[in-house]
Design a protein that fits this description.
By secondary structure, the chain is an all-alpha fold. It contains 9 helices and no strands. It has helices spanning 3-11, 42-62, 68-75, 79-85, 89-112, 119-133, 148-167, 177-196, 205-217. Helix 5 (89-112) runs antiparallel to helix 6 and helix 5 runs parallel beside helix 7.
Length: 229
Amino acid sequence: MNHTLLMSFLHYPIVGLSHIGNVPAMDMLPAYTSQGVPPVRRDAAANRERLVAAAEAVFAEHGPNATLDDVAKAAGVGPATLYRRFANKDALVHEVLTGFFGRLVEAAEAAARGPSDRGLETFLRTVGVELAQKSGLSAPKWGELAPEAIVEELRRLSTELLTGAQRAGAVRADVTPDDVTAAIWAVRGVIGSERVDPSHRGAELWRRHLETILRGFGDGDGRSARSTV
């Protein structure tokens, strides 16, 4: 085929085809992405967001004991709708944890924008609040489902916060990133104990425990940048 003719064919405007058999008008054809697949419809995206939000609420309250049927019921959809979007429970948990850890990354970034002597403390307090409000999401058995790249970014940011606090003289020089991780584990453990012990439920003992940790991190006088038991 002549090259000029071929180019004319490719760029020839298709006008008034809506009346020809099964050929749809151009404005009726689905838009395609660069990968050759239609973009997710707006209502489908909204349904997915509603499912993830419901899953986060259910998993935060009931942890690994929650079922996909529980999530579907909370979202107000049938189980089949949920399974069309998430093949299994692990896939849905991964999606929820991606959002959860993503918010912790945002919290670390926000803390880094503040005074360096308070950044680590501010971040750890925020983590404590998030864990207390959504304790079911921190179940150890779900650790392998956490988004690795986001978790690594969180470690990097928390290490930077630690370094900034040490340079500002608010945290001892011998405190390590592993100590920060252990502090979060400790807070998570206290929160978990409060969940299963009715006598301590709602006492928020994790706040007092975190204060003890922060004082241990503190500079030479044994105090954190801001100690408020």
